[in-house]
Amino acid sequence: MTAMTLTTALSVNVNKVALLRNSRHLDIPSVTRAATLCLQAGAQGITVHPRPDERHIRARDVYELAELLKAWPDREYNIEGNPFHNLMDFIRELAGRGMRPHQATFVPDSEGQFTSDHGWQLYEPGSRDVERLRPLIAECHALGVRVSLFMDAEPQAMAAAKALGADRVELYTEPYAAAHGGADQATQLQRFAAAARAARDAGLGVNAGHDLNRDNLTDFLRAVPGVQEVSIGHALIADALELGYTDTVRDYLRCIQHAA
After folding, report:
1. Cα–Cα distance for residue pair 180/186, rounded to 1 Å
2. What is the pTM of this model?
3. Each residue of 211-228: b (16+ CB within 10 Å) or e?
4. What's the whole-number mean pLDDT along residues 145-172?
5. Which of 8, 123, 152, 224 has the fewest C-beta atoms under 10 angstroms from its C-beta?
6. Cα separation of 124 and 114, whole Å?
7. Contact criterion met (CB below 8 Å) for 245 and 41
8. Of residues 56, 76, 170, 210, which has the active-site annotation?
9. What distance in Å separates the CA atoms of residue 214 and residue 236, rounded to the nearest whole number?
10. Separation of CA 233 from chain center
11. Is the pLDDT of residue 7 over 50?
12. Catalytic entry in 49, 56, 154, 229
């Protein structure tokens, strides 16, 4: 089975590999080796979220992974982060080296934030983010980089994301993951489906990520129309500790295929 035949691409976030490596000074496990094994197993892309404190992905990793992806021209490199912190520096440097990422995902994290937990609030009156984001999205486009905005599942916000020039939105899926298997699951799926439809109606592509796993991924993709990419890190790397990278990636691809 090849990942290219599926309707939704799987991008593996390797941050947690870097977090484990950083607990010692032995340079193991290797982030690039993990990425290679995931790509060999059929993942369509690699995602990193380099935070300013380098608590997991470091600057060296960003550039080494970009070099690695040159050998996989049919796969994508997605770099996440807050464009008001360090993300744009990476985008500019990689573009200058002829290794621009395929996608930049803008995430409104604070510098010390434990993990991403909310999307951009673009529809609020007087939001400062709107005018601050617009020139950075335009700069990414000038460098040949697609832009996705990390967003809550709020249909009314999708037109605002498109008006800024975004190409895609990444729906923040933790509320769905927390509800999966419970009484609120159907309500959450309806909410995400409505947001995805609003995004597509506005002319945006739809990505999704955060706390998706082998148990909840198929249900999500069956209910939410037109998801082009899922970015999965924590659960996938945790599964890989037990199953290995190859079997884990293939199992996630099966989840996607079952939804299709």
Report:
1. 8
2. 0.92
3. bbbbebbbbbbebbeebe
4. 96
5. 123
6. 25
7. yes
8. 210
9. 8
10. 9
11. yes
12. 49
- In the chain, domain spans: 3-259
Q: Which two tokens stand for residue 22?
A: 């950083």
- Is 85 a catalytic site residue? no
Burial 51-84 (b: 16+ CB within 10 A, else e): beeeebbbeebbeebbebbeebeebbbbbbbbbe
**Is residue 93 among the annotated active site residues?**
no
Per-residue model confidence (pLDDT) at position 109: 74
185 phi, psi to nearest 5 deg: -60, -50
Write down the catalytic residue from 80, 154, 170, 229.
80
Least confident of 126-140, 144-158, 210-224: 126-140
pLDDT tens-place string over residues 72-89: 999 999 999 999 999 999
Residues 80, 72: Cα–Cα separation, whole Å: 20
For residue 170, indicate whether it is catalytic.
no
Architecture field, domain 3-259: Alpha-Beta Barrel (3.20)
Q: Is residue 1 very low, low, confident or very high in pLDDT (cuts 50, 70, 90)?
A: very low
**What's the distance, Cα to Cα, between the start and end of the chain in Å?**
14
Q: For the residues of 108-165, what is the DSSP string, one character each?
A: ---TT-SS------TTSTT-HHHHHHHHHHHHHHHTT-EEEEEE-S-GGGHHHHHHTT
